[in-house]
Every structure is written in C-alpha cells, then in structure tokens.
Amino acid sequence: MGADQAAELMRALLKEAFILGAPVLLAACVTSFLISLVQTLTSLQDQTLSTVPRLLVVAGLLLAGLPWYLDRLMRYTVGLFSDFHRFVGLT
Fold this sequence. Notes:
This protein is mainly alpha-helical. The chain has one domain (3-85). The chain is 88% helix and 0% strand. The chain has four helices and no strands. The chain has helices at residues 3-42, 47-64, 66-82, 84-88. Helix 1 packs across helix 2. The longest helix has 40 residues, at 3-42. It is elongated and about 65 Å long. 0% of the residues are buried.
C-alpha cells in the first residue's frame, strides 16, 4: 500500500466520521447554548441542569438515528471490503 492509498483511506474514514458525528455534536451544542441561555436569564447555576438535558438529547438523537447510522456504517464497510484488493496488491 502506497502513501496515496493510505491518504485516500484516511480521507474517506475522516469524512464518514464527520458525517456521523456532526448531527450529534450539533444537537449537543444547540442544547448547551439554550440551557446556558436559560440559566443566565434565571440565574440558576446548577451543574445537573446543564448536563442531564444534553445527555437526554444526545441519547434520543442516537436512538432515533440508529437505522441511518447503521446503514451508513454498513455501506462504508462493504465498500471498503469490496475494494480491499486494491490496497493489498492483489488483482
């Protein structure tokens, strides 16, 4: 395997990781912002008030998007294994 093939594999891997991780991170950021806004407006500074809703939103999003996540991961894995002969030098 050459350096260009390794770079291609890493690029595809990072792209998939970004596509799979972006919705969860975006939901966590939006939830954190809204909770921080509410805490600032109401002068409540409780740590559990900021952590528990964020965990619930992320867990709910992961459960709701699980079929999409699994489909995306399976397509990536099947594509990787079907092109595996290019990377190990077999024809």
